[in-house]
Amino acid sequence: MSTYRVRGKGRVDASKPIVFTFDGKPYTGLKGDTVASALLSHGVHLMGRSFKYHRPRGAIAAGSEEPNALIGTRRSAGRFEPNTRATVQEIWEGLETNSQNKFPSLKWDVGAVNDAAYMMFSAGFYYKTFMWPRSFWDKVYEPFIRAAAGLGVSPTEHDPDTYASRNLYCDLLIVGAGPAGIAAAREAAGKGLSVVLVDENAEMGGSILSEPQAKIEGKTSWDWLSDELADLKAAGVKLMTRTTAIGYYHENLIALVEKLTDHLPTLPADTPRERMWRVRAKQVVLAQGALEKPLVFHGNDRPGVMLAGSAQTYLHRYGVKVGNSPVVVTSHDSAWYAAFDLQDAGAYVQAIVDTRAQVRQDLQAEARSRGIPVKLSHTVTATGGRLRVNNVRVNPLSGTNVGAGQWIKCDALLMSGGWTPSLHLFSHTKGSLAWDDDLTTFLPKDTPEDCVITGASRGLWGTEAALRDGATRVGEALAKLGVEATATEYTVADDRTGSGVMMRELPTDRSPGKAKAFVDYQNDVTAKDLRLAVREGMRSIEHVKRYTTNGMATDQGKMSNINGLNIAADALGKKQPQVGLTTFRPPYTPTTFGAFAGYHRGEHFEVVRKTQIDAWAETQGAVFEPVGQWRRARYFPKAGETMDQAVTRECAATRASVGIFDASTLGKIEVVGPDAAEFVNRMYTNPFLKLAPGKCRYGLLLGDDGFIRDDGVIARVDENRFHVTTTTGGAARVLNMMEDYLQTEWPDLNVWLTSTTEQWSTVALNGPNAAKLLAPFVEGIELTEEAFPHMSCVNCTVAGYPARLWRVSFTGEVGFEINVAAPYGRDLWEKLWEAGQQYDITPYGTETMHVLRAEKGYIIVGQDTDGTVTPADAGMDWAVGKKKDDFVGMRGLKRPDLVAENRKQLVGLLTEDNSWLEEGAQIVFDPKQPVPMTMRGHVTSSYNQGTTGRPIALAVIEGGHSKMGETVYIPMPDRTIAAKITGTVFYDPENSRLKI
Amino acid sequence: MIQIHCPYCGETLPELEFAYAGEAHIDRPESPSAQTDEEWAEFLFMRQNVKGPHFERWRHLHGCGRFFNAVRNTITDRFYITYKAGEPRPDLATLLEEDNK
Predict the structure, then answer these.
(1) Angle CA(A224)–CA(A225)–CA(A228) in degrees, nearest 5?
(2) pLDDT band at A582 (very low <50, low <70, confident <90, very high)
(3) How far apart are CA A225 and CA A513, in angstroms?
């Protein structure tokens, strides 16, 4: 038996010892222990170092609100988690845990020098200390901040665990399985409702687990609890333990994180580590209870200083005495019971120090009967002990005067500043709070959500009150669900109720400027910091918070917010409600990235769209690139080829004979209906009304602001049917835009729009031998210049498959695009591939496609245009119908800025020294001007591997169209490159190669 | 996550199915070419940017695909009403009054 374990106490299993390690040293705990309770059972209070000052710290609480006892937990490589609260982590055989923020060891820590330099790290120190000299920033300050920043260390390996997510719809969700939550569940159970009761702890029961003395309905509280939970389960209530409600979102959507394996010694197969539940509940009951407030005094952070209620929990739930000779300091009745219970468990309570002059007679009598010295109207002004509290300085109070101090030896100091209702989830609902002067705390008021709040969360105290309130308040939710509530009246004997007063910093006889009286333990914020922030001009609580970082740590100010507010309000000379509370935000407790990511990781992070031909490209060793969500073959390297070499070869082969390209990713929209031509004519700049069936036309799509949005070839399949293509990445956007105009501006047009992108496989053949290769496969049309000229389309049969065959070119060569039903794409491709061997057919990817089109000056929307380019800017006025009444963007093109002189216009660039330009490089007219230079445009496309024998580039340049032949300059870090402005067509300007 | 009632489907469904589509009741002029530069700029760019009840458009993108109108409070995200495109703009005072009941 460990030294501090109390035989016969607690809910741990004394017959099941478990060995785990802390900082490499093995410790034995019992089944049911947390790391904190097991360490405390060995008298180990020192569990970590604080973030800023590296002060020694121990567990101050027993639950998820713990700010100090943060540890790293390790199961195996990759299964390491920093900043785990030792008060929550259950032990299992072989668990490895480590303390944080220490070097070289927890007991001897170099960083503790920060503690001595306390004055330097006061409120706002980030803003003050590192201001000057400026030259220190790179070499001294930033490395120092980076080394000191961050809580714990990050895992270095890939997380091998899996995380799940689920949706759940229910009638009633109850958050918190303490007395109020259980009573609420009882009212709702067995009434045909789907009811879910969740609790973040391993066991349900809340405060009942720490109050075995109470008798509920004639049973011991623990018997009552197990009977009640069994009944609820039998009645169909879904009970979820180790499940934290981390956030309350709009319309009763609550996120739950269920921890499934962190408490298990061996991982079950195929079980996720955590499961995120998105619960949409018709009604919600919040029964999150209350959190105990620390008292604020010099040395209130020494290991061994702990919340009195938590000491109770360690005793009753885990059978652990947190000390043999504790002192209790309090301003609330509840801590007196901690003193009594510890005394009864064999400890010698050295004193109960209460700041109040008047305390209930029955409490004083109980203390007397146990021989515990009582000091009313006393304050605590200091504690002593290096790594563990070993004495406490107690001073009498008379009015505001603090008398002479007296040191009392102790091995633990239990404090209570009263209780703060837990309003986190209630605040997530945008619920309003009301200040209660009697309880000196905020209480819940109204919420826009379908939710009620009950029990200690609304300031009630004692098991009976919580039970009755839970049973009553749930009635409101049940009524809305159409169920009558009974509001069971519970009777509890040996219930513990009480009251107290609110304290700011405890009165002291010491200089308040030197006091290290902590308010936020995790961020090392003291009362002095808060007052300094107010003195330095912070007026809003939100500013005080950010300047001091009070409440900004991973515990979200569960302990510090109210104490911080009380002190800031006092410094500001205002009442608390006038100062206001900072906003609570989800998640309630730190949550793993895994839980949020769920299944969306690795290959499942985003959808990868693949064409029918993708697998063929893979077998050919293609290098892929993402385009939108598509995976496209970028180039097909032969053994030992670089990208440049491969692309040069692919370009040359296509121009010399024939290249084959997978164009299936192009967006495709089928526009059908009696008004289809009218619709396409209104959407696109080009005239489409007179386009004959069997013909294709290039189309430019503008926004109503006149700027280019998309482009593509549009085929009129028949009188009332158009096959519209869009850019690969723009398909969804274009369809949305078309739907918008069709549904809301022109609902009179009789047109249907259908996305057909994935219905077609599109194989493009380009090159002088394309027609020769394709002709034997085609039935229904002769591939001659006369029968099937450039920009024609036809429904025919290709390789036995029904096809939409187009004669179009994005390369400047004779080109065909063969559209067949998607599943036939691979077979068609392979047949062409086989037959193409006699022509040295070459597959090419997007990179070669880019080069070939750039040589012809064909733009890529989104690369050569950026949302501020008009057709005229792009040199494509020819694509704008001059006789049209209206099209989207027509009026926009006449806006003053769009017809202004000196717009940036698309031109070609040829460097004087034949060097390659960086895409995105800025262009200037005068390279000798002082920096910053006036930038006149930028390079939009630039290639080195083409068939023109020299690098080419496209660029947008101010007034570029009237500057042909002029020289511009591209300043780069190492030199300035001169380039001549040219037209955008670098290859075959006569389009002679488009002829069969 | 808010839930939105699609007036075409008649179902109240999670926000993820919908896409926001800007302020409602801005009609594209019948003959844009007749618009002055000021009028056209007003149509293209000027929006209410309301703090409070806002007339706006949504599209049931992953459902029926229809655009519809809604009145949503931009502070609370509360939807007072959704209605089909082309239906008249509801009276705000009446809506708020009904909502208060």
Answers:
(1) 80
(2) confident
(3) 49
A386 pLDDT band (50/70/90 cuts)?
confident
Q: How far apart are CA A71 and CA A63, in angstroms?
A: 14
H-helix or E-strand spanning residue A575: none
Query: CA distances (Å), A121 to each of A116, A124, A478, in order?
Result: 10, 8, 53
In this prediction, residue A673 carries a pLDDT of 98
Q: Among candidates A944, A941, A952, A956, which has minimal Cα distance to A986?
A: A952
Comparing A8-12, A438-442, A476-480, A843-847, the range with the smallest average pLDDT is A438-442
A133 has pLDDT over 90: no
Q: How far apart are CA A843 and CA A586, in angstroms?
A: 52
Of B20, B16, B19, B38, nearest to B29 by C-alpha is: B38
Q: How many angstroms separate the Cα of A782 from the Cα of each of A233, A787, A808, A841?
A: 77, 6, 15, 21
Which residues fall within 8 angstroms of residue A735, CB to CB, at 6 or more apart?
A667, A669, A726, A753, A755
Task: Name residues 870-899 of chain A within 8 A of B (Cβ).
Answer: 885-886, 890-892, 894-896
Contacts of B59 in chain A (CB under 8 A): 736, 739-740
**Residue the block writes with tokens 């005394």:** A343
Closest residue on chain B to A253 (Cα): B1
CA A169 to chain centre: 24
Query: For the whole model, what pTM was predicted?
Result: 0.89
Domain enclosing residue B56, as ranges: 3-100
Beta strands A815-821 and A952-958 are: unpaired
Strands A326-330, A412-416: pairing kind: parallel
Task: With cut-offs at 50, 70 and 90, classify the pLDDT of residue A153.
Answer: confident
Strand A215-216 and strand A492-493: the pairing is: antiparallel
State the nearest Cα–Cα gap between A899 and chain B, in angstroms.
12
Which residue of B38, B67, B74, B75 is the best one to mutate when testing the A interface, meaning the one whose CB has the most A CBs within 10 A?
A: B67
Tokens 């002067």 locate to: A437
ipTM of model: 0.97
Any idea which of A154-168, A314-328, A405-419, A709-723 has the lowest mean pLDDT? A154-168
Which residues in chain A touch residue B28, judged by CB atoms under 8 angstroms apart?
A: 704, 741, 745
Asked if B32 lies within 8 A of A747 by C-beta distance, the reply is no
Taking every pair of C-alpha atoms in chain B, what is the biggest distance, in angstroms?
Answer: 47
pLDDT bin (cut points 50, 70, 90) of residue A142 is low
Mean pLDDT value across residues A470-491: 94
> Which is higher by pLDDT, A393 or A122?
A393
Q: How confident is the model at residue A124 (pLDDT cuts 50, 70, 90)?
A: low
Name the domain count of chain B: 1
The answer to whether the CB of A954 falls within 8 A of the CB of A662 is no
Say if residue A600's pLDDT is above 60. yes
Comparing CB atoms, the residue among B21, B44, B66 nearest residue A705 is B44
- Residue A671: strand, helix, or coil: strand
Handedness of CA A941, A943, A946, A952 (dihedral sign): positive
| CATH number where B12 lies | 3.30.2270.10
The share of chain A scoring above pLDDT 90, in percent, equals 87
Cβ separation of B33 and A885 shorter than 8 Å?
A: yes
Residue A341: pLDDT band (50, 70, 90) is very high
For residue A671, the model assigns a pLDDT of 98
Residue A844 and residue A660 in contact, taking contact as beta carbons nearer than 8 Å: yes
Instruction: Give the dihedral sign, CA A268/A270/A276/A280.
Output: negative
DSSP string, A737-762: HHHHIIIII-TTS--EEEE-GGGEEE
Report the gap between the CA of B87 and the closest CA in chain A (Å). 11
Residue A102: what pLDDT?
Answer: 75
